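Memo to structure team: turn this sequence into structure tokens by end of day. - J.P.
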Amino acid sequence: MAERRTARDLLRTIRRIQKITDLTVLLESVLHEARTFVDADAGTLYLARDGRLFFSYIENDTLFPEGNPKERYVYSENNIPIDRNSLAGYVASTGEALMIDNVYDIKSNVSYSFNPSYDKLTQYKTQSILVVPLMKSNTVVVGVLQLINRKDRHGDVIPFTADDRLYITYFAEHAADTIERADLSRQMVMRMVEMAELRDPHESVAHARRVGDYAVELFNRWAARHGVPLHERILKKDIFRAAAILHDVGKVGLTDIVISKEGKFTDQEKALMYRHTVFGARLFRNSRSIWDKIAYEVTLNHHERWDGSGYPGHIQDIFAEKITFGPGKKGKEIPLSARIVAIADVFDALTSERSYKQAWSEDKALEYLQEHAGEKFDPELVQHFIDIRDVLQAILRQSQR
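Reply from structure team:
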């Protein structure tokens, strides 16, 4: 385990999370950074909603040392009441932190108790625990951060310290403020998606969210296999999700004739539909941030195909009054971000029920991707996508909650 950290290290940690704007990536980072800071073996981040605490993220170096992303979604379906009976519920109810050396030795004269069901299910042994509220403006609890089993340099479980409690409480205050800002950013992005949904009911907010989730997990898998450092993956995921969510935002510029048509398009109608990629790209073309660059890549290129049969192809000037579609981009001419979103978009379209079709099973949709790997889709990315099918299933379950 790492050496004990200082207040200066804490400030650096806070600055790192404050740079993150995507809510989902931020929540993951808050838990990971807090665990790392106090050398906790495991942890859980809960979000408060409608009088309950929802499991948002779980990490456990003993049970899943490779950070299997499946575990971030499986437990998000579970929730507990905000009351004084559970450890997390007590902290959310009172706004007070709890630090316990051994959860199996909690005295009977307190209202809260430890639920050992997870330990029994997994054969894990929870001992020391530190639970702190995530509060905005020192009054409203937005969640709870729970850290489990602090370890010494030999890997033995030891109690958390008073310094740990002080540092993590301070960290949680800043994390709550950052979560609130990220939530506002998420709402702004989703309003743009809602604008597209007003024009095209097929492009629902739920579809956009799932495409964002699928795309981020596929990117994470690809990045891990290509040795991309963890800190770089976190920053890219932060940017990537919002860009993926906005992949079809250009549909706000399409005419009602194209949007409302249910049957096959004529060649003229196809050309009009293809323009949504250009309309979307125009929103981000002249901006200078990395986020705008990736959003531009995704909106313009997510309908390109590996074999060059996609659209809009090479375009000299996307701001030209008369848009001329060029030869399709192929292979790695297509930006990685767009190749990833292409797979995520098609998978979700196939597995979603539409007015003109039934939803495909996940197996059938994955078979389709595999069948067209090397033709429509990047074959390496298709294999990575198939490899994370458990994650895909968990994302879908979460969206149906």
